[in-house]
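Hi R.,

As promised on Friday, here is the backbone we talked about, encoded as structure tokens. Could you run it through your design pipeline when you get a chance and send me back a sequence?
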């Protein structure tokens, strides 16, 4: 995981940077972030165009491209490392694209962690309101 930013009351946002981390997040949070991570990673990999025709060099720069092209998958953790919220933001945390923010078992994280979600939005210059980011509102 890569550090992203701090949130109020000893919580921290991290970026999930591997499929293993996404799998752990899915298990701990009881939702399907792993499936979404894998799908978005595959789409980003398919969009990679090698800079050379030399076979042995064709993957140079591929991982960097994937990390820039795929959406950001983020986890909010408490000071003990427990997962509290999972978020998916557009690539680079900018531009248009789906934004999904969920709690454990796809529960609404806004009542308990709205201040931390707001801090994440401020970090990226995004408005992360419940009406557009929580997909399971009733």
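Update: got your reply. Pasting your designed sequence below so it's all in one thread:
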């Amino acid at each position: 995981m890569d550090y992203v930013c701090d949130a109020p009351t000893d919580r921290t946002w991290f970026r999930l940077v591997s499929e293993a981390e996404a799998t752990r997040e899915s298990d701990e949070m009881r939702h399907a972030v792993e499936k979404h991570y894998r799908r978005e990673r595959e789409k980003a990999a398919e969009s990679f165009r090698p800079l050379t025709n030399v076979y042995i060099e064709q993957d140079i720069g591929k991982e960097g491209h994937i990390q820039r092209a795929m959406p950001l998958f983020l986890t909010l953790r408490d000071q003990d490392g427990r997962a509290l919220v999972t978020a998916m933001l557009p690539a680079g945390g900018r531009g248009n694209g789906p934004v999904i923010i969920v709690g454990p078992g796809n529960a609404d994280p806004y009542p308990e962690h709205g201040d931390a979600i707001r801090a994440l939005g401020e970090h990226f210059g995004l408005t992360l309101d419940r009406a557009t980011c929580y997909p399971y509102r009733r």
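One thing I noticed while checking it: The chain has a mean pLDDT of 94.

Thanks again,
M.
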